[in-house]
Amino acid sequence: MGIVQKDALRTAVVSYAGVAIGFANKVFLFLAILSETEIGLLNLFLSAASMVALLANFGSLHMILKFFPILKNKETNNEGFLKFTLLVSIAGACFLGLLIFIYRVDILEYYSTKSKLFADNFIWVLPIAIGILFFRLFDGYLRAYQKNIVPVLVNEVIFRLVFTALLLLHAYDVINFYWLMVLSSLAHMGPMVVMVIYLSYLGHWKVFTARITIRPRLKKIMLKYAGITYLNNLGTSIVWTLDVLMIAGMLGLAETGVYTILLYFMRVFAIPFNSIMRVSVPLVSVHWKDRDMKSMNILYDKVSSVSLVIGLFFFLGIWSNRTELFSLLGEEFQIGIYAFLFLMIGNLIDMYTGINGIILIFSKKFRYDVFFTGSLIAVVFLLNLWFIPIWGITGAAMSSAIAFLLLNMARLLFVLKAFKIHPFKKSQFVVLALFGVVLCLMEFVPMDFGNIFVNMILKSILITLLFPVVIYFTKLEPEINSYVDKVMGVIKKKLGMDPA
User: Fold this and answer.
1) Are 27 and 262 a contacting pair, CB within 8 Å?
2) Which position among 16, 81, 211, 467 has the lowest Cβ density within 10 Å, counted as fewest Cβ atoms?
3) 77-102 vs 36-56: helix crossing angle, rounded to 10
4) Would you kindly state where each structural domain of the chain is located, as residue ranges?
5) Residue 499 has pLDDT above 50, yes or no
6) What would you report as the CA-atom Rg of the chain, rounded to the nearest whole angstrom?
């Protein structure tokens, strides 16, 4: 778990720098410069493009994470693996581009009533989708090499600074909203280009000269695996995107703007978990390659325990300050408070169950996950059709939370039965009990100190003292202690306080 802690800490630090910039963009500049409809349009572009990129990848990302440990060989340039996966993604992009062209009239008609502005400018989804598709492919290749910092820095920090500059140009009337939309769409291709340059710098970009020497039998297995995991890759990633697309079609761009801002806060909520997952996923592949179920169980246990503590801590901090946070966003965002609650619950469930889906996908029983993923998408779609007309964006969030609960319970039981491993420990139930006590305290004890920011600071300090500090000193979760001690060691060393 040491490599997970080290890399997760670094990527989390860079991600939080990106969050600070993203927060300034989406909470301050968006609300100050753009209307709800314009916010909804820009975020809908991103959601639609993410959907297109997911559909076009043809399973290439999971193919990298699964088979790279087998094909890794510097002398043979990994048997042309990067070139092979790149060709798969290009084929997927061409195929999906053809489908969009064929069904473009039906797609645009769906949005023409409630989100006409999106329908009129749908073409600008494509450069965003291309940028996302190939950035994720190259990022996956670099993750397999445990090269996490540069991709995160480029995508989370530098790209957002570029977007900040575009927003300011629009604010000072240097460019109008149309050109903000066009330039921001084209800017999404920037991280992809930087990844090509970085791969070239590392000596891995040899797609024009490299020969694909993967054995035909292995290639067939890889393509079969990619085809099946392609459906799975659409699963949890597609849920939030499906929400946004259906809200835009059923409610309009203003509601879409509110919901997508809430989804941005969910990204903040999930940053520690995503940082852990970035470096844990390649380890799952290695453990399966070595048939090391003992190490797999240890990793499963620790990722789930750490994610549970971090997720509950962030839940307490955000939900206890919801009144103050939403008052800063404005009156139009008040409709999103309970949608926010259900979004957090859905994310928390996904965080606690940890790497169950990854363990299943990388195993020989990966075909079964197609059923789980297909069921997830079907449940979200059907519940959205039922819930959104009744409860609006709160209904969309409810459907996602229910679907994530059902999906992860099914995966947990399947992994337990098939591989005899699970993430549960007695200490986790003590952690959940402590969470319940602190939550009740924050809900039912009046804590109004007369100022929004004072309220948020004092509540956050109290939650920190009552939850993570108590867990640390009682040593309920040893992995948390190890993680905190490592962070403190790095800080002391940087400050010159560590004589070593």
Assistant:
1) no
2) 211
3) 120
4) 1-233, 258-500
5) no
6) 23
